[in-house]
Design a protein that fits this description.
alpha+beta; four-stranded antiparallel beta sheet; three-stranded antiparallel beta sheet; 12% strand
C-alpha cells in the first residue's frame, strides 16, 4: 500500500479511474478536471494536468467503454465531454477553451434564469414579509414581556415585602423563643441547683440521723446486753434463793409432817386405848360415859382436819413456787 499526497488548489469532489488503469481523473469544487498518470509516483509526487470544464463543483465523472471519452457534470447544470488520447493528454495546451457542446439550449437557460429570478423575488418578498411579521411579533412579544415583567415585578415586590415581614416576624419569634428558652434554662438551672442543694442537705441530715440512729442502736444494744446480763444474773440469783427457800420450807414441812405423823400415831394409839377401854367396860356391863366417847370422836375429826390443812398448804406452796 502506497500513500501519496495530492496537492490541488481546490478540494477534490469526484474520482474516476480509466478502464485501462493508466489515467486517473479527479473533479474539483472549482469545476476543474485533474488528469493523473496512473499509478501515482509516491516518491517524486503526483503529476497532473488541469482542465477548466465548469464554473461550479463537479458532481459526476463517467468513462466510456473504449477509454476515449470522459463525461462530466456540474452543479451549474452543464455537462462536458472530454476527449482522451491513449498515449498523450495534450500536454502542450495550457488554456482549455469552453466546450461548445451542452445538453440544454440558451432558451432553456434563460427560462431557468427567469424562474430562478422569480424564485429569488419570491424569496425576498417572503423574507421581507417574514421580517415584518417577526418585527410585529417581536413588538407584541416585547409588550407582553413588559406587561409580564410589570406584573412579575409587582408580585415580586409584594412577595419581597411579605418575605421581609415574615422574616421580621420570624426574627421576633426567634428572639422571643430564645428569651423564653433562656428564662426556662435559668429557671431550670436554679431549680436544679435548689433541688441538688436540698437533696444534698437531706442526704446530710439523713446521714447524720442514720449515724445517730446507729449510735443509739449500739447504745441500746449495749444497754440491752447489760440489762440482759443483769436480768440473767438476777434470775439465776432469784432461782437460787427460791430453790434454797423452797428446800428450807420443804425441810420444815417435812419436819412438821413428821411431827404431825408422830402426833397422829400418838392420837391413834390413844384412840385405840380408849376404844379398848370402852369395849372392855361394855363387856363388863359397867356404865359407859357417852360424853367421853363424843370427845374422842371430836379429837379424831380435828386430827383429820389438821392433816388435810397441812397437805393443802404444802401443795399450794409447791404450786406457787413453780409458778414463780
Amino acid at each position: 500500500l502506497v500513500e501519496t499526497e495530492l496537492e490541488t488548489q481546490s478540494p477534490i469532489n469526484r474520482l474516476c479511474l480509466s478502464r485501462s488503469e493508466r489515467l486517473l481523473f479527479a473533479g474539483c469544487w472549482d469545476g476543474t478536471l485533474l488528469v493523473y498518470t496512473y499509478p501515482l509516483n509516491g516518491a517524486a509526487g503526483a503529476q497532473f494536468e488541469p482542465y477548466l470544464l465548469h464554473t461550479a463543483p463537479v458532481t459526476g465523472l463517467c468513462m466510456s467503454m473504449d477509454d476515449t471519452l470522459l463525461f462530466t457534470s456540474s452543479v451549474d447544470g452543464s455537462m462536458a465531454v472530454f476527449d482522451v488520447n491513449d498515449r498523450e493528454i495534450r500536454r502542450e495546451k495550457k488554456d482549455v477553451p469552453w466546450l461548445q457542446e451542452t445538453l440544454v439550449s440558451r432558451a432553456d437557460l434563460d427560462e431557468k434564469a427567469a424562474v430562478l429570478r422569480e424564485a429569488e423575488a419570491r424569496v425576498r418578498d417572503l423574507t421581507t414579509q417574514n421580517e415584518y411579521t417577526m418585527k410585529i411579533n417581536s413588538k407584541a412579544h416585547e409588550e407582553d414581556t413588559k406587561q409580564l415583567e410589570a406584573v412579575f415585578e409587582a408580585k415580586l415586590q409584594k412577595e419581597n415585602a411579605r418575605y421581609k415581614y415574615l422574616q421580621a416576624e420570624k426574627n421576633d419569634l426567634e428572639a422571643d423563643f430564645e428569651e423564653k428558652m433562656r428564662h426556662m434554662e435559668e429557671r431550670h438551672t436554679a431549680t436544679t441547683q435548689e433541688l441538688e442543694r436540698m437533696y444534698e442537705l437531706k442526704l446530710l441530715n439523713q446521714g447524720k440521723r442514720l449515724a445517730s440512729v446507729e449510735e443509739e442502736k449500739e447504745k441500746e444494744a449495749l444497754k440491752y446486753e447489760e440489762q440482759h446480763e443483769m436480768l440473767v444474773e438476777q434470775q439465776d440469783k432469784l432461782l437460787a434463793d427460791i430453790q434454797d427457800e423452797f428446800e428450807t420450807r420443804i425441810a420444815e414441812q417435812d419436819k412438821v409432817i413428821d411431827r404431825m405423823e408422830l402426833d397422829a400415831d400418838e392420837q391413834h394409839r390413844i384412840l385405840e386405848t380408849c376404844l379398848l377401854y370402852t369395849s372392855d367396860a361394855a363387856d363388863e356391863e359397867d356404865s359407859v360415859d357417852l360424853g367421853g366417847r363424843r370427845i374422842i370422836k371430836k379429837k379424831n375429826k380435828e386430827l383429820v382436819k389438821v392433816n388435810d390443812r397441812t397437805s393443802t398448804k404444802h401443795e399450794r406452796h409447791i404450786s406457787e413456787t413453780c409458778m414463780q
